[in-house]
Amino acid sequence: MKRVVVTGLGAVTPLGNDVPSFWENIKAGKCGIDRITKFDTESYKVKLAAEVRDFEPRQYMEKLDVLHSDLYTQFAIAAAVQAMDDAGIAGSVESERFGVYIGTGIGGISTFMTEHTKLLQSGPRKISPYFIPMMIANMASGMIAIRYGCKGPALPMVSACASGSNAIGEAMRLIRHGYADAMIAGGAEATVNAIAAAGFSNMQALSFSEDPLAASLPFDSRRSGFVMGEGAGVLILEEYEHAKARGAKIYAELAGYGSTCDAYHMTAPQPEAEGGARAIADAFREAGLDTDKIYINAHGTGTPMNDKVETLAIKKALGEERARKCLVSSTKSMTGHMLGAAGAAEAVVSVLALREGVAPATIGLASPDPECDLDYVPLKARRAEFELALSSSLGFGGHNACLAFKKAEV
């Protein structure tokens, strides 16, 4: 089978609107959570979110494209442009061999809200003719494909909070099995809005803390829910020989991928972590490295069940002895939960952690939960040499995904 490498990275996040600023703030342990500014929270229990700030879509898109696209698509395009520029790949791939997989949990929910309000207030004639294309979940992939002339597969991955990871993993399989030479792959989400906050609040999924430093608390005994985040992450995946032939910069090799379903419950993880453990084990086994030098970017949402079950999944997948030697962290402690974009942004983090030998911290982890007893790199980033980076994602519907990156042997 063909090898798949990462040759470009892009990110729009609550910690920075490009990869360098995002990564520096991750290493510094900066918190991207603050008071919600996008809607009036007076009647809401939730007061905090991790918003993307100072984002200017006109840096990446023409005015008409901005007007005719949802914010989630704008985030995706911005991250894709960054990744394409970073890879320097434009013009070097046959259009029929170049594809786009962008995951999203919800798609254009802000557009849906805006147009529904118009319908109620002013009637059907006021609905935008662009309403449907702006809202649908495939449009980020579609618009990126149009921009770069990608005539290979261009699809969305919609698997809730696993969407970004599934998009990257499925894109890897396309290249590995010879259907594409390169893929633009990642995830995007823009759900910090009134209706999403109400929905997540009413299902008791969110933290209602009003202290930004004590809201997203993965693996901490005080954790009480996740914090909404938003943004996008995009990777350029390329067949190794193709990348080598054009002299591309290679960040890492995407060497393993696991994808499973709990088939258990709409929102709750399976208590024995069977599905999550299989996804991690499959990615680890496929990577083909018998090593203890592992960094794991955990899903780590800060919800009571998720963190406990994910701890168990890591132990079952790797064996307890190896699991205890891993450095595990949840960067959602800094970014909040970026939903369909989370796995993609965390894949960017995992690649850079492997490349630079830095395990980001789980900030805020001051009161460890006895049932979450692995090394979660509390409070401060740590330097260490890694041979493998695993990035796991768990989504509503029981979707589990794990990506395994290793240093590229050139």
Shape: globular
- The CATH level-2 architecture of the largest domain is identified as 3-Layer(aba) Sandwich
pLDDT under 50 segments (min length 5)? none
N-to-C SSE string, H for helix and E for strand = EHEEHHEHHHEHEHEHEHEHHEHHEEEE
Number of helices: 14
Instruction: Give the domain tally.
Output: 2
Structural class: alpha/beta
Radius of gyration: 20 Å
Distance between the termini: 17 Å
Mean of pLDDT: 97
The helix fraction, in percent, is: 25-40%
CATH class of the largest domain: Alpha Beta
CATH fold description of the largest domain: Peroxisomal Thiolase, Chain A, domain 1
List how many beta strands DSSP finds: 14
Main sheet attributes: strand count, strand direction, barrel closure: 10 strands, mixed
What is the name of the CATH superfamily of the largest domain?
Thiolase/Chalcone synthase
Strand order of the largest sheet: 5-4-6-7-1-8-14-13-9-10
How would the blueprint of this fold be written?
Elements: E1 4-12, H1 19-28, E2 34-35, E3 48-49, H2 63-67, H3 71-87, E4 98-103, H4 109-122, H5 131-135, H6 139-148, E5 154-157, H7 163-176, E6 182-189, H8 194-202, E7 231-239, H9 240-245, E8 252-261, H10 274-287, E9 294-297, H11 304-318, H12 320-323, E10 327-329, H13 332-335, H14 342-356, E11 358-359, E12 382-383, E13 388-395, E14 399-406
Parallel strand pairs: 4-5, 4-6, 9-10, 9-13
Antiparallel strand pairs: 1-7, 1-8, 2-3, 6-7, 8-14, 11-12, 13-14
Helix pairs in contact: 3-6, 7-14, 10-11
